[in-house]
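anyone seen this seq b4? input:
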Amino acid sequence: MVIKGVLTGDIVRSTSVPTMQRKNLLASVSDVMNEIKNIIPLKYEIYRGDSIQAVIDNPADSLLAAILLRAGVRSKTPKDTNEIWDMRVSVGIGEIEFWSDNIPTSDGEAFRLSGRGLDSIGKSSLCINTPWKNINGEFYVNSQFIDDVICNWSSTQARVMFLALQKHRTKKEIGAELGQTHQNVSKLLIAAKEKLIRISIDRFTIVINSKEL
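predicted toks r here
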């Protein structure tokens, strides 16, 4: 058996998104996932119109992928929209017992933990579940903190974080891409709590890698 990471997610309050924007929203989710694929090896599918499932080759990359997904989608919010776009994302870590070309019909521990997590996520928009009960409590606290931070990101902060969390992106490069000064990028990253998010990602990576060993 091979341990993988599985993300199961859906669009927050998708039915409240104006009909004219829904097509653009779904296209944005796909665009974001394709960007993430450039730095994190994964496979994904969008199904049921507003849901997504992705398999992450290296489970230690799962939390970063989840944060990038939410940051990317939030950053795509149109300026004339009253409610910022976002996704609920459940991270499941575990074995893959049955692999299908159609990801939603695949099965295994990682799929079940991810799917059940989304079903019971409640008012939160991020959760993490693993087979290891001794670390699930830590990941619960970590995910609640990260979720609270993300839910307060503006679309501009989300875009800066989406770029900053990708490899080899300097503040100068981010500023050039967004038409922002180096100083303004720094201010946006501080407001978005970049350092704390990175600490959380690093801790998740260390813990998962220790379990992998």
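DSSP finds eight helices and five strands in the chain. Residues 19-37 form the longest helix (19 residues). kinda curious what u guys think
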